[in-house]
Amino acid sequence: MSGRSDEQIWRIRESVARLHAELTRYRLVAWTAGNVSARVPGRDLMVIKPSGVDYDDLAPENMVVCDLDGVAVEGDLSPSSDAAAHAYVYRAMPEVGGVVHTHSGYATAWAARGEPIPCHLTAQADEFGGEIPVGPFALIGGDDIGKGIVETLAGHRSPAVLMRNHGVFTVGRDARAAVKAAVMCEDVARTAHLTRALGEPVPMAAADVDALYDRYQNVYGQRSTSPAGP
């Protein structure tokens, strides 16, 4: 690889290693479960967490570079057991630059029920554009999980899917966006659970959900502006 390619991959290794700390910070994972990956732009490669390594021991040098079949091409450790699933998502969804998997408690409880999280909150409308859907059950190790993710998210605005009897997978334009979606998914899943415990949620009109999603995606936050002309 050229020096420029080496530098690009090292920066992504650093980013992926650092973003794993967000999963533990927000209590989305336990022990060594869960993973973050990032696409290498312009290359048929991704960077992902090694399998079975403690979060405290994750560092740029032990992230694993894989091809888009999930096969390790750089690094001394075996990649995450979800590498093939992540790779399938990157092959099928070229707009995706990051994938995250967690077993966060409240969202995974909805996955265990095989029930989508209905949209009764402005925060969920903002981030997910409606309900958070449920994907099919699939065994770990191959790309069946990836196929389920892609099939379920097709036609959905949600960047998160609850894989039945398994956990949460999220996608984003980059790995940080996918981590944010995982954090927000657990947040709305917890509130949805509490709402159900208190009684029947008040529905939101579809038009309001659409308006909230559009505002959050296209207006909210700091937006760059072109400099004024002379």
From TrEMBL:
What Gene3D superfamilies does the record point to?
Class II aldolase/adducin N-terminal domain
Catalyzed reactions per annotation: L-ribulose 5-phosphate = D-xylulose 5-phosphate
| All residue ranges annotated as the Class II aldolase/adducin N-terminal domain in the record | 14-193
Q: Report the InterPro entries cross-referenced here.
A: Aldolase_class_II_sugar_metab (IPR050197), Aldolase_II/adducin_N (IPR001303), Aldolase_II/adducin_N_sf (IPR036409)
Asked whether the keyword Manganese is assigned, the reply is: no
Q: Name one Pfam family in it.
A: Aldolase_II
Which top EC class is given? isomerase
| SMART domains for this protein | Aldolase_II
The Enzyme Commission number assigned here is 5.1.3.4
- Keywords of the record: Metal-binding, Zinc
User: Needs which cofactor?
Assistant: Zn(2+)
- Record's superkingdom? Bacteria
Q: Answer yes or no on keyword Metal-binding.
A: yes
**Which PANTHER family does the UniProt record give?**
FUCULOSE PHOSPHATE ALDOLASE, L-RIBULOSE-5-PHOSPHATE 4-EPIMERASE SGBE
Question: Record's family?
Answer: Belongs to the aldolase class II family. AraD/FucA subfamily.
Q: What is the name attached to this protein's record?
A: L-ribulose-5-phosphate 4-epimerase
Q: Which organism is it from?
A: Micromonospora maritima
